[in-house]
Amino acid sequence: MKAVLIATSLLLITGCTAEVGRKMAEDECYQIQNNVDREQCFKDVKRTFKNY
Asked: By its UniProt entry, which PROSITE patterns does this protein fall under (predicted)?
């Protein structure tokens, strides 16, 4: 039973961490002044966090 709770907790933490990382990466994209570079940044973020 403990193992199941630990595994579930780790999955939730990992999911939250990925979401926080994605938000931070998107915030960095908003700082880019060049439109083309900004769009590429968002595409890279989307591709990087696709499976999370």
From this structure: PROKAR_LIPOPROTEIN
